Every structure is written in structure tokens, then in C-alpha cells.
User: Fold this.
Amino acid sequence: MLRAVAKHSPQLAKAVVDSGALDALVGCLEEFDPGVKEAAAWALGYIARHNYELAQGVVDAGAVPLLVLCVQEPELTLKRISASALSDIAKHSPELAQSVVDSGAIAYLAPLVTSQDSKLKRQVCSALGQVAKHSVDLAEVVVEAEIFPKILTCLKDVDAFV
Assistant:
């Protein structure tokens, strides 16, 4: 339900945040059930995607390191959703992108560019791109994760969005 409300507008996402939901959602990222983690990652991503302030709130609530752990989980959908949420956080500013880098996300995202799953590759490429776009230093962090030449295979992917 929180995801369904937060996705529509920054005002509705802020209402979710103002209700105290961030701490509960971040706590859900530590649950055993992957479905609970997925739902929380979806909601956090929808909150973060609207603007810098909301994304900063997600970061301040401690979501980024837990999203990085979710990227490492075996469940494919959880990996996709977590990578998407990291992308939604990183897109707003160099500082938010740096928080994704500081959490160690790049080391776990970069190898996923060779995944057989096109939807996961989309999210991973988006997250890496959102980090790299802000500065030379952040782009170098992505390149240093040894994405070349692996990332070039994405150009030939059957999924045009990859």
C-alpha cells in the first residue's frame, strides 16, 4: 500500500515519509522473507525517485547498505528492485551517488551487467549510469569496477532498453 501511494507524486511520497514509514520500510529490508524485502525496496525506490529531499531521507534512514545486501540475495526480482532503488537514489546529486558508492554497491552491481536476465541488466546499467553521470571521479569508480569490456555486450542485447 505504501508503494502504491508513494509512486504518484512527491507530495504523496512525503506523506508516506511524514507518517514515519521510512524506519519501518528500512526494517523490512532486514526480514527473512524475500517478498517483504521486495515490497520495502519498491516503496523506498518510489519515495526516492521524486526528488533530492525524499531520496536524502531514504539515505538518512539507512536504506542504502541494506539495499546493497539485497542486490546480493539470490532472488532475481529482489536484485532487480534493489538495483532500481539504488538508481533512483543516485540520480539526484553527486552526494547521493556518493552514498551509493560508499556503501560498496558498485562492486556488486558491476558484475551483474553480464546477467542473463535483461530486466536486471537494465536496472544495473541504470544504477551505474546514474552514479557515473555526476562527475569524473564517480565515473572513474564505475570504470574501476572493471565494467569494460563486459558492458559493451549490453549494446548487442536483444532487449532494446538494455
The mean pLDDT is 92. Residues 34-48 form the longest helix (15 residues).
